């Protein structure tokens, strides 16, 4: 850990949190954070959100970045999301759930994705059975590294004074296509929370697309920032309890050619009980 003062503070916070009953179920200590992750952590504390540029994220991913081509190519094989209540068929997706703890990544049995109507007034309130993330992508060293690093990062940012024994992580692969309708909505539900603790959005590809500006809003509705993810691997980290988010519509630069915006979304929340978390959402 590069900053000794910061390292001491993390240690103190972890010791304070270890008095919680959940901490006794901890499987092992989380790993120390890299310099890049410490920088993200500081921005999350200060602002509730943090951006990671392509260089920073590639450094975070280390040698697992060599698996990027097959990982990104898997977005070419996503089934249409048939649950869009606005009737749109411009979104493609796959879904998976994991339990993540120190040195543990366990994929959970396939399950429906559920959001309350409070968090998703358009598509929430029902169980949505999306096709599973393919096994070789769930096992891909790149997503495994990403899951473990996010577990490490968020474990140092415990909320409610509870140190996580493990995290329930949901993985979404999304493609928004411009050929199905002229203006496609990356977030048709509007400005929203995902209803979890932490959210990560990583751009995997963007081709022949205009628009798609990410908007960061606080719980009072005040716009804090807006920016466009343009390079693969650019990432946004969100404290979902403090920040609401949205992405503006996209449309094709060249309307005669396909356009799409691909993202990976990881939503992260405290596992209910570390011992049961491999099967419990
Ligand atoms: Fe969201």
What's the short version?
The protein has helices at residues 4-17, 35-47, 54-61, 68-73, 135-138, 141-155, and strands at 49-52, 91-101, 104-107, 113-114, 127-128, 167-177, 198-207, 209-211, 213-218, 223-228, 235-239, 243-247, 250-252, 260-270. By secondary structure, the chain is of the alpha+beta class. Fe (ii) ion (FE2) binds next to loops.
**Physical arrangement of strands within the biggest beta sheet:** 1-11-7-14-6-2-3
CATH class: Mainly Beta
**How many DSSP helices?**
6
Tally of strands: 14
Q: In the CATH hierarchy, what is the architecture at level 2?
A: Sandwich
Q: Give the H and E element order.
A: HHEHHEEEEHHEEEEEEEEE
Number of domains: 1
* CATH fold description: Jelly Rolls
- How far the N terminus sits from the C terminus, by CA atoms, comes to 32 Å
What's the gyration radius in Å? 18 Å
Report the biggest beta sheet as strand number plus sense, adding barrel if it closes: 7 strands, antiparallel
What ligand species are in this complex? fe (ii) ion
The average pLDDT is 84
Q: Quick one: overall form?
A: globular
> Structural class of the helix and strand makeup?
alpha+beta
| Fraction of helical residues | 10-25%
Name the poorly predicted regions. 1-27, 273-281
Strand content of the residues, in percent? 25-35%
Q: CATH H-level name... which superfamily?
A: q2cbj1_9rhob like domain
Task: Name the features.
281 residues, alpha+beta, Jelly Rolls, seven-stranded antiparallel beta sheet, three-stranded antiparallel beta sheet, 6 helices, 21% helix, globular, disordered C terminus, binds fe (ii) ion
